[in-house]
Amino acid sequence: MDVYVDALGNIPAPLLNTTFNMVRPTNELVQALNYWERGEDEGFMRRFAAMQIWLNDSTPFPGEAFRKYIKDFYQRNLLVQGRLEVGGRRIDLGAIRALVLTIAARQDHIAPWRSVTLLHDLVGSADRDVIVLESGHIGLVIGASAQTMLWPRLGDWLAARSGG
User: Which of 13, 41, 64, 136 could crosslink 107 through cysteines, CB 3.0-4.6 Å?
Assistant: First the structure.
């Protein structure tokens, strides 16, 4: 990772996309097959095109922020260990007392649900809930079932804590 930052400065968006695709190397093939098999479905084609535009409209990741992010979160696991510092202040998840709702997707290959719920368990809030849905990383929020799976539950959680 240091070699990339040292050589490139910012991490180019196509390189980031390649790394995401390497996590699931057959994903692009599956997408192509879906496109081929469902080409007559106008609704699917609109959603597919919108998703492809969004996926391929990434921005470069600032190099030094990328270096710090990868080292602190992935290589050293400082947040979970309670040793991450931001702006000179240590981040203690156990000290969080605000209302917390954690949302995770069971098929998420970017933020695996077990990792997400582990972080949830480290938060010190007395009022905390976790929702784990049968979805993927992006589909959780904008997928075809998000309107029935996520948004009503999120609305109910917010309404119950809105004071009126």
Answer: 136
